[in-house]
Amino acid sequence: MWEPEAVKKFNVLVEVTLQPGILDPQGTTIERSLPHLGFDGISGVTVGKAIRFTCEAADEGAARGEVEELCKRFLTNPVIEDATITLERA
Amino acid sequence: MWEPEAVKKFNVLVEVTLQPGILDPQGTTIERSLPHLGFDGISGVTVGKAIRFTCEAADEGAARGEVEELCKRFLTNPVIEDATITLERA
Q: Which of A4, A60, B7, B86 is most deeply buried (CB count within 10 A of its CB)?
């Protein structure tokens, strides 16, 4: 009897950050406001995107390959942004 | 001789997500575009913010308290957004 190939589900988090040296106006604005609001001791604020989704693939390698391709082609601007991929079995 | 209180540094990640049931137009737009770009098997796309910074505090409890207060008052809209705080010693 024919057995369908098992498809596995993965929970994926893609954190998109601006590359070092690229101006981060959102982060700068937050950081400048903090002392006026009474928050001390906070520095180096950066603001990026956290994109979460579910990916179906034959195995973790295939899932990671698809997500890397997706990041390069669609989710990030590779000229100014970096992507960090976290992948775990759903 | 007087010893200053030791100040510890923590690397903080605040992930800001829309609460369940709140419309996520960015996520929907990404998800709808994927089949046209040749990406299959991806679902449940959500887009949030990833805010990173360094926090100085006496201990981890004090740091977490300050970050929670910061999330409530400034980094999120608590009516429609949730914050997940990850904190580790720098």
A: A60
